[in-house]
Amino acid sequence: xxxxxxxxxxxxxxxxxxxxxxxxxxxxxxxxxxxxxxxxxxxxxxxxxxxxxxxxxxxxxxxxxxxxxxxxxxxxxxxxxxxxxxxxxxxxxxxxxxxxxxxxxxxxxxxxxxxxxxxxxxxxxxxxxxxxxxxxxxxxxxxxxxxxxxxxxxxxxxxxxxxxxxxxxxxxxxxxxxxxxxxxxxxxxxxxxxxxxxxxxxxxxxxxxxxxxxx
Length: 215
Hints:
The chain has two domains: 3-85 and 97-102, Jelly Rolls, CATH 2.60.120; 106-213, Jelly Rolls (Sandwich). 0% of the residues lie in helices and 50% in strands. The chain contains no helices and 22 strands. A hairpin with a 2-residue loop joins strand 12 (108-111) and strand 13 (114-120). It is globular. It starts with a strand and ends with a strand.
């Protein structure tokens, strides 16, 4: 139900202007200084920001910094299509309504020891994606649950986490690992380490993601 990519862009590299005719795309900036083109707008984004390119809307990116930039790309489709476009006349300005700007946002306590940013959903104009970033303090746990109608992908951004899967399976997640749980299968996340760890929770469905908590 989803495609998740880990994209590193070298300084000065610029992607072609393009669109996806069958899916929207979310681009989470992990690190670096990026310039984005969405429609006819051009703006910059940095670590922690998230950009939604709606289905059928032209977009592109460029690393305008002096070091490699890294982004996580998310499509709520197992087979995203891509169509190249000619560049248009862009107008520089502030990020538009389909951009989550970290510096203008606040996290909230999702549960004890777990802070959360909700970055993509219908509040950002998404039609089929819900994306959150969760930071787990040492020893904190996200309760076991399952999703009755969609998969969930869990991308470990920083630190070390453990995913509970099905009955008693344990799946260790280091930074850069991504684990996808099937529809209807019990899962959860906890931090057994002595340092904070951060996770992207990726749902190829519009918010709120239906879930059923279990023991």
